[in-house]
Structures are given as C-alpha cells and as structure tokens.
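[recover] target loaded
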C-alpha cells in the first residue's frame, strides 16, 4: 500500500508540474524570416549563410481568437474537452500530451529505479526531457540553454546520489558518457548538418551523462533506441508528407528514458 500511495503522490506531483509548465512551453515560437521552412536550406554555404533560426519567448495564444492563454485556460482534463474558454477552439495536442506523458513517465521512473536518491535525479531528467520534447515537436527547435541547465542541475543531483550510494565512480562514468555522446553527435552534425540540429548535439550530452551514471555501456543502448525511434518517425513523416525530416529530440529523449527504465534486463544481458 505504501508503494501505491507513493506512486499516486508522484503522479499527482507530475500532473501539477505538467500543468505549471504547459503555458511556458507553448510560449516558445520560431523566430525566423517569414518564408516557408526548408530545413536543408537553413544550413547554407560559406558564400550564402542560411537564415538565423532561434526560439523566441512570446505569448501562448489561442489559434482561433488569439486570446493570450493563462494557467487557468490549460487546466488538465477540462481544457482537453472545453478548448479555449473564450471561443472553444481546441487547444494544441501538445497540451494533453505533456499533461499525460509527464506524470506517467515520472511514475514509471520511480517504479523502475530503486531508492529516492537514485530516482530524484531521473525525475529531474524526465521533466527536462518533457519540456525539450514538447518545444521540439512544436517548433523543431530546442532552446540553446535548456540542455545546459538540465545537465548542470542534473550533475549536481547525480553527485548527491553518488555520495549517498558511496559509489563515486558513477560520477566519472556520467562525465565520460556526456562528453562521449556530445563528441559523437558533434561529429555527426559536422558530417550532415542538414540532418541534425545543434540542439540535438547539446541534448546528447545530457542523455549520455544520465544513462552512463547507471552503467558506462548504457548510452549506447539509449542512442540505439533513439535512432530506431527516429527511423520510425522519419518513415511516418515520409508517408504523411513525402518528407522524412522531423524533430529528432523527442526520439532521442524517449530512447534514453527507455534505456534507463529497462536498464536491469539490458545489463543482465551484457553480463550473461
């Protein structure tokens, strides 16, 4: 019963956290020249640099009446049915997505990881990845500071978890995993800048750090799962609009979380 109560409290905390970040996540807009987006052309050449594309923090507005939305307007469950309280226009699908996915992911994280000191850093990871994924799904951009803040705070939490567990090697594993994943994605970004955004390179550092803290081999599985999900996403995008380009961040995030959640069977397979 205590475990059930703990999971219910985590779910409620996740719902409140998701509600709190819903409006801020939908305030990010794509600041770019007013032309149809062509991801490949954004790379540019030395003689003809691509346009500057970045995330801008503005207002979250209803797509129907342009009303500025507040926290009351995105109340969980009610807002999914009611839509905009002024004109009834349905809210973006990313509103219920974050309000369902974040609590569910937090409960799964607590259920799959033993001990509060271990679960706490990964609950932080879940919140950060939820924010990054929703923004990337909406505008195909990851705010430059978000992976850095996630990694900085996360490193402190992982350090505390290392001290609590008495296994200081894990912090070295985390540092090495983060640097290794960053270098790998940096090389891939240089090789194919039209296929990979630099936001994904920053995100790789965060994911490599958290997966490696559990085991040095786990980042390989996280990146593998993320790549498979990316191939699926690219295939679906190709079928839907004959264009295989899509935001890669959510696939990488979900792949890393899958490696974290199922780390025990993965590591048992490694040791035979």
């Amino acid at each position: 019963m205590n475990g059930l109560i703990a999971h219910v409290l985590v779910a409620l905390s996740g719902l409140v956290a998701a509600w709190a970040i819903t409006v801020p996540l939908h305030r990010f807009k794509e600041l770019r020249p007013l032309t149809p987006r062509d991801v490949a052309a954004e790379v540019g050449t030395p003689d003809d640099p691509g346009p500057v594309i970045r995330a801008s923090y503005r207002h979250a507005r209803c797509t129907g009446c342009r009303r500025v939305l507040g926290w009351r307007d995105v109340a969980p469950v009610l807002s999914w049915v009611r839509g905009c309280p002024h004109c009834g226009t349905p809210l973006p699908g990313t509103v219920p997505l974050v309000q369902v996915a974040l609590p569910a992911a937090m409960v799964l994280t607590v259920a799959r990881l033993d001990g509060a000191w271990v679960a706490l850093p990964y609950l932080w990871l879940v919140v950060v990845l939820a924010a990054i994924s929703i923004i990337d799904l909406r505008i195909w951009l990851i705010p430059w500071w978000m992976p850095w803040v996630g990694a900085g705070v996360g490193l402190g939490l992982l350090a505390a978890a290392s001290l609590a567990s008495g296994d200081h090697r894990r912090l070295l594993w985390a540092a090495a995993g983060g640097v290794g994943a960053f270098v790998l994605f940096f090389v891939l970004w240089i090789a194919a800048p039209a296929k990979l955004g630099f936001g994904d390179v920053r995100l790789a550092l965060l994911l490599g750090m958290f997966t490696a803290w559990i085991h040095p081999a786990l980042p390989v599985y996280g990146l593998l799962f993320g790549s498979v999900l990316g191939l699926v996403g690219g295939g679906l995008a190709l079928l839907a609009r004959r264009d295989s380009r899509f935001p890669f961040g959510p696939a990488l995030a979900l792949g890393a979380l899958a490696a974290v959640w199922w780390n025990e069977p993965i590591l048992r397979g490694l040791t035979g």
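[recover] notes: Residues 1-26+59-112 form one domain.
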